[in-house]
Amino acid sequence: MEAINYLLKFAFDTFLMILVLRVWLQLVRADFYNPLSQFIVKVSNPLVIPLRRIIPGVGGVDLATIVLAYIFATLTFIIIPLLNGGPIDIISALYLGLIYLIKQTGVLLFIIMLVMALMSWVVQGYNPTQMIFSQLTAPILTPIRRIIPSIGGLDLSVLIAFLLLNVINILLGGWVPYWSML
């Protein structure tokens, strides 16, 4: 049963991160023709396009994709306990789904910044993935770079962002009951 739980959680988390990336790419107006952007759009289109007919976007924000991401985050707390024979509390699942969506967005940001930092050591020249990651993290890292400039060519903005993400993660962890963590 643990293997099934793991695979289900992996599937939910993967699609949740794809949906979060789709919204994030739209918000930062990232390059639509980038291969990574095209992959995200093509994978998520089958579920997003039909939902867009019901839920329109507002002010450049794709509400249909946000609602779909919230549904997937909430389903994580409904389907996995259901398969394990545990009780299901819809109100708790709705609350935990929202907290989980926020937490997974932070995890995704952490992963992207970590990969971006590692790529900066290895990749020489133009790389489409590195370019899209730079566009995605610019709204978070640019304000930090204004406050703390590079010191001898060393960019500490990613380290400060990691610290802030960990603080937010600790605060969110206090809002989630221990029994609900997957």
List the helices and strands and how they pair.
Blueprint: H1 2-27, H2 35-52, H3 63-83, H4 90-122, H5 128-147, H6 157-175
What's the gist of this structure?
This protein is an all-alpha fold. Helix content is 75%, strand content 0%.
Which sheet architecture does the biggest sheet show?
none
Number of strands: 0
- Shape label: globular
- Count of helical regions: 6
Q: Structural class of the secondary elements?
A: mainly alpha
Question: What is the residue-mean pLDDT, rounded to a whole number?
Answer: 88
Q: In sequence order, what are the helices and strands, one letter per element? A: HHHHHH
Point out poorly predicted stretches.
Answer: none
The helical percent reads: over 70%
Computed over alpha carbons, the radius of gyration is 18 Å
Distance separating the two termini = 14 Å
Q: What fraction of the residues are assigned to beta strands by DSSP?
A: under 5%
Characterize the structure shown.
There is one protein chain. The chain contains six helices and no strands. It is an all-alpha fold. Helix 1 (2-27) crosses helix 2, helix 2 (35-52) crosses helix 3 and helix 4 (90-122) packs antiparallel against helix 6 (157-175). It starts with a helix and ends in a 7-residue tail after the last helix.
Which properties best describe this structure?
182 residues; mainly alpha; 0% strand; globular
